[in-house]
Amino acid sequence: MYCATIKITTCRPGALSQRSRSSTARSHLTSKPDKICSTGSRIVCKTRCAAGSENEESSRRGLLLSGSSLVALQAFSFTPKAFADDDFGLFYGAANPPATPNKVGGTTKQFARYSFLYPTAWTEEVITKVEKGTNGTDCRFVSSSRKKEKVFLLTLSNEGGSKRFNMEQDPITLLTSLTGSLVTFQDALAEAEVSVKTVDKDGKQFFEYRLEGADSYLVSITVEDGRVFGLFVNAPARGFNADGEMLQKVVESFQTYPNA
């Protein structure tokens, strides 16, 4: 298993780049002499990474340079909390095509392509044809309007395309490919501090992401039968902190199933 933290930087004319720090991992970032990099927003120039020591390089297992996003490896942990069984329901989703909008209720386990737990106090919303056709939204549950928390699932298939979704891609490339048409998520991604780790569930690999900012997300992504599935849990910063254990339980429950 590996874990990663993304430090978003911008570059402008100036002196050599400064040291970028995180709570558990450090790397010395250098760029050309005519640029200076500082944290805060999406990278607009490529940087080169030099390890401070052999031990540091070993602990990081290198840096992932995906497009213009710099990914430094770092662990994050979470302590789960016990909940009553009736606090959550189990949703089975069918990954319906865009021609089948305006449905709620999911499907049965026999025909499910994915499943996850959701808070029973939340309400399932109808997904429109536009949502299904443009970004692959298959279902969505929302909390009260006061808390503004939600969980939704995106699924897309690119079978026959020149670049298929697969878990061999670096996790940031996979995330951005799936969410390219979600403007609000792309804005959150540009502003948030992002962590990612790989998780094995019964031999199946998942990428789990944590985006912390004014608009925070927990995300779990995997690929099944050439189709990418992504479960997104979203909350404002206050709700993300207050209900973090519940939101984590939802995203950790995410499973996918092979096409019958």
TrEMBL record:
What are the protein's GO molecular function terms? calcium ion binding
A Gene Ontology cellular component where this protein is annotated is: extrinsic component of membrane
What are the residue boundaries of the PsbP C-terminal domain, all occurrences included?
A: 112-255
Q: GO:BP terms for this protein?
A: photosynthesis
Q: Which InterPro entries match?
A: Mog1/PsbP_a/b/a-sand, PsbP_C
For this protein, the record's Pfam families field holds: PsbP
PANTHER family per record: PSBP DOMAIN-CONTAINING PROTEIN 7, CHLOROPLASTIC, PTHR31407
Name of the protein: PsbP C-terminal domain-containing protein
Species per Swiss-Prot/TrEMBL record: Cymbomonas tetramitiformis
